[in-house]
């Protein structure tokens, strides 16, 4: 079964852009499955807080994502900000992973366990701790083990103080800055470990984004999340992730609990070559989070499979060009656009290329122009960049003048329409 993609402009589309969209619709996209892909020629404003009809989730906020493509299989209140509790330690871990990758920090570097780290996150705190001795020096490698496996609040504070000087600067200048670089626009951080503070807020969607990034970009460090125990200061502690011992292929990531946030978990597992990531938060019982996360993962593995929607470098549409020697530029996706679909078929998908345009000439081959978005119902299932497949040079003076006049007329028409 073959379908096309309709091209729209963002944040608005003109009559000219719609004509280009109709040209793009002539390009075939082979699916090879029983579902239906619709070419979208109108705006879709899908609800961001919906439940998949095939799954009944009990968690107040939840999301299930296929790691390779980023396909969202299920979401419920996924953009609601809540206290992330110890799940926020994933952000601290990522900052450290990134610093090591850049060469700013070494695994062998040693940081001192300050009195602040010891009192707020160590043995006197009564919270999850690595039990690092006050004023002792601990390597970054061991602190990461303590933070990830033992959920040590003292380990996180020591890492923050060692890298930034104090925890407040680490939260604002390192965690927040890095989160924005990764596209996490809503998350806010007030400390390094998720201990109760009104400034600690994350959504399950952004926790899922963070987990996916760690899994894909730091495989050498991700293995830490699957280690089942760690001993420090002669105290052996098991990994707090219940999925590691109860589900095939489970190898991460982090649990969390505070009175404000409830019980939550970021989990991941691989089965038959497919990796899924689940995030739940806001549950009232410690057993419920394990049950809910496992149930959601098993549902995903049982009911979905990966299909290629668009092959790598396959033409997917055209973008309108302003002032070029060609009036449009062909667009391709550098990587295959894959989406998770129900094994039984019947999924209704809507695909659209979204770009800000017209694109001003000159356009370089390989230049990112926009994204192709695929919706499942009202929710985005996958979003992938699209690039210019060819270079477009600057057009003649007459060509630029015609394009300028055309945009002026369209702008006047739009302004008049907005007053109606």
Automatic annotation (TrEMBL):
The keyword Plastid does not apply. InterPro entries: Beta-lactam/transpept-like, Peniciliin-bd_prot_C_sf, Peptidase_S11, Peptidase_S11_C, Peptidase_S11_C_sf, Peptidase_S11_N. Substrate binds at residue 254. Belongs to the peptidase S11 family. It is an enzyme of class 3 (hydrolase). SMART domains: PBP5_C (SM00936). One of its GO terms (biological process) is cell wall organization. It catalyses: Preferential cleavage: (Ac)2-L-Lys-D-Ala-|-D-Ala. Also transpeptidation of peptidyl-alanyl moieties that are N-acyl substituents of D-alanine. Residues 304-394 form the Peptidase S11 D-Ala-D-Ala carboxypeptidase A C-terminal domain. Signal peptide: none annotated. Removes C-terminal D-alanyl residues from sugar-peptide cell wall precursors. One of its GO terms (molecular function) is serine-type D-Ala-D-Ala carboxypeptidase activity. Keywords: Carboxypeptidase, Cell shape, Cell wall biogenesis/degradation, Hydrolase, Peptidoglycan synthesis, Protease, Signal. The active site is at 86 (acyl-ester intermediate), 89 (proton acceptor), 151. This is serine-type D-Ala-D-Ala carboxypeptidase. Its EC number is 3.4.16.4. Pathway: Cell wall biogenesis; peptidoglycan biosynthesis.
């Amino acid at each position: 079964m073959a379908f096309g993609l309709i091209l729209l402009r963002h944040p608005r589309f003109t009559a000219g852009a719609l004509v280009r969209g109709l040209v793009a619709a002539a390009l075939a996209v082979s699916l090879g499955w029983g579902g239906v892909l619709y070419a979208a020629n109108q705006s879709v404003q899908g609800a961001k807080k919906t439940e998949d009809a095939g799954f009944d989730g009990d968690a107040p906020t939840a999301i299930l994502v296929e790691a390779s493509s980023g396909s969202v299989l299920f979401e419920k209140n996924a953009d609601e900000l809540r206290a992330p509790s110890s799940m926020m330690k994933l952000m601290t871990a990522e900052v450290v992973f990134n610093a090591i990758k850049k060469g700013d920090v070494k695994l062998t570097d040693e940081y001192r366990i300050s009195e602040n780290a010891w009192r707020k996150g160590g043995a006197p705190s009564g919270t999850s701790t690595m039990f690092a001795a006050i004023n002792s020096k601990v390597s970054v490698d061991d602190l990461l083990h303590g933070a990830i496996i033992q959920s040590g609040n003292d380990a996180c504070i020591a890492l923050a103080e060692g890298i930034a000087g104090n925890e407040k600067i680490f939260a604002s200048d390192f965690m927040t800055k890095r989160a924005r670089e990764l596209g996490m626009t809503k998350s806010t951080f007030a400390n390094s470990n998720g201990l109760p503070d009104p400034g600690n807020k994350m959504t399950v969607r952004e926790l899922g984004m963070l987990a996916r990034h760690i899994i894909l970009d730091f495989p050498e460090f991700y293995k830490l999340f699957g280690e089942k125990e760690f001993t420090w200061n002669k105290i052996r502690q098991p990994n707090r992730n219940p999925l590691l011992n109860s589900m095939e292929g489970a190898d991460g990531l982090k649990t969390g609990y505070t009175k404000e946030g409830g019980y939550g978990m970021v989990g991941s597992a691989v089965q038959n070559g497919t990796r899924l990531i689940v995030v739940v938060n806001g549950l009232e019982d410690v057993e419920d989070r394990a049950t809910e996360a496992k149930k959601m993962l098993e549902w995903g593995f049982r009911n979905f499979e990966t299909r290629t929607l668009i092959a790598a470098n396959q033409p997917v549409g055209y973008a309108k060009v302003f002032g070029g020697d060609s009036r449009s530029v062909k667009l391709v996706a550098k990587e295959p656009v894959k989406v998770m679909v129900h094994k039984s078929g019947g999924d209704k998908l809507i695909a659209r290329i979204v770009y800000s345009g017209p694109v001003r000439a000159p356009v370089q081959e390989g230049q990112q122009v926009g994204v192709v978005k695929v919706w499942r119902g009202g929710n985005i299932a996958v979003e992938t960049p699209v690039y210019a497949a060819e270079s477009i040079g600057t057009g003649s003076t007459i060509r630029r003048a015609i394009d300028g006049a055309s945009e002026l007329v369209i702008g006047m028409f739009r302004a008049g329409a907005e007053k109606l």
